[in-house]
Please model this.
Amino acid sequence: MREYTVPRVVAKILIPYILLYALYVQFHGDFGPGGGFQAGVIFAAGVILYALLFGLAAARRVVPPDVVRVLIAFGVMLYGGVGVATMAKGGKFLDYGVLAHDPVHGQHYGILLVELGVGITVTAVMIALFYAFAGRRSA
Amino acid sequence: MIAENLPVLPIVLPILAAPLCVILHRPRLAWPLAVAVAWATFGVCCALLARVLADGTISYQLGNWAPPFGIEFRVDSLNAWLMPLVSGVGALVLTYAPRSLAAEVARSRHGLLYGVYLLSMTGLLGMTVTGDAFNVFVFLEISSLSTYALVSMGPDRRSLMAGFRYLIMGAIGGTFFLIGVGLLYMKTGTLNMADLAERLPAVKDSRTVLAGLGFLATGLSLKIALFPLHLWLPSAYTFAPSAVTAFLAATATKVSVYIVLRFFFTIAGVGESLGNGAVREAIMLLALVGIFVASLVACFQQEVKRALAYSSVAQIGYILVGVTMLTVDGMTGALVHVFNHALMKGGLFMVLGCVVARVGGSRLSDLRGIGRRMPLTAIAFVIGGLGMIGVPATVGFVSKWYLVLGALEAGLWHVAAMMLVSSLLAVVYVWRVVEVMYFQEPEDAPEIDEAKTDEAPFGMLLPTLVMIGATIWFGLDTDLTVDVARRTAAMLLGGGS
Model:
């Protein structure tokens, strides 16, 4: 794909908006349709589009596989960490109400952080899957 | 904080340690963390069992949402009794794992393997502790998916194929389970187990519910490897890394047996599901055929791991025969056998792991002369093998005693006789190994110095001996296991219908 100018230019214009839209879906998820899963897939799609047009090596420079591995784990830990924080503050596991003085705010913060964890892990897993398949030598 | 959140800690600890293992990556850092967390989980599970035995059933509401709408963790004597077993075996095998893995798996993968192992443990504990039917499916998938990964990390190229076959069969089993839960939900409008148990009797005759229970039974039969749905099990156990096999053989099918008991006894009620003749006799027949066929096949295997895997299929048969007797003694025998078989089979696979670490294989021909070369390891195999046969003073005797007692109580003389005859088949497949270990010389080995031994590393030998020692301990001191099992059996049989 390297020799085609038009897709490369179009992708260069589109990728920032794809990533921005992913963040919108992520953080607007508590008010409208969306959330961590969808946002994670959209964000990863931006990275995968970059890899398709500019090559796997370029994508690996932008998002190194080691970083991907850490992000996969970090998302899960963020989710679980919220649960541990609620237990430490005297509530049940994942009882977001205790996170702030006002239970409604607490619920809001809790779901935001948990969804962020989901988003990070889904993004990283999607990229890791793409790297794994794209990195295979054809027999 | 710890006391009131006790039921959720066996899930939270390993599931948070798993990603940390993946981040740490280096086995030198990941292993101590994984082992510490696994033993801590075991401690929590023991505390939970003590509290349930003292105070009765504990209910825990996740996120403080009240059941039946929120997810509830519900611990009674049935699952509280299984959790120390799963976490204890998990911790012991993990302690044993690094030296065993060093011989079988590339070092760069060890960190990941510990993470996946903890995830598998999380899934199994989660299936046990949860009181929500859909939540069972979620944890079932966590444990299954991580198990497929663990199996395919094995040393052989065939491990990948074994993992793939397990994935196909496991996915079908999981899907059937989910369809079953969906059909029950369709008719009752609830997923909470206690709530299901209340609402199910009103609609018990509808075809939807019957179909749902049918799907559940089929899906779970795949997961527990009931004959003839056991085909994934032998190659998965043979080609997985030895430590993984020891953990899986001891825990995975046992937790699925628990799910069967939960769904068909406490939720659907004995009288409605298994009680009416045909279904019960069909399952008992399959279990009995499974005992004989699998034991017979085990007698002809050259690969000892595969022989033990077939023996596991036979042992599942014993457990299900005990369950389908519908007598307190039979059920006690089945529950005790869940516990005892986990110790025996886990111990035997750990012994084979020791042999693989020293000799490089676990075919019969590899075991020649092991009795002299690795005396303690060989003795451990003999003790574990005696347990499989059911010799007095081992755990195997305790479970067979109650199973036969239950069969006689139910008036099933032929079943009791068949169980005793099938023990003779166990004598055959255990003796083949013992004979090779003690009475055959290695073919091309140099002259072995009589006094010189070549035992497995201490870090592997000690956990193996602890596990095998436990089979004798619980064979002599049956207070803990039998008492709890008897209480649970009475609860299961009295609570239904």
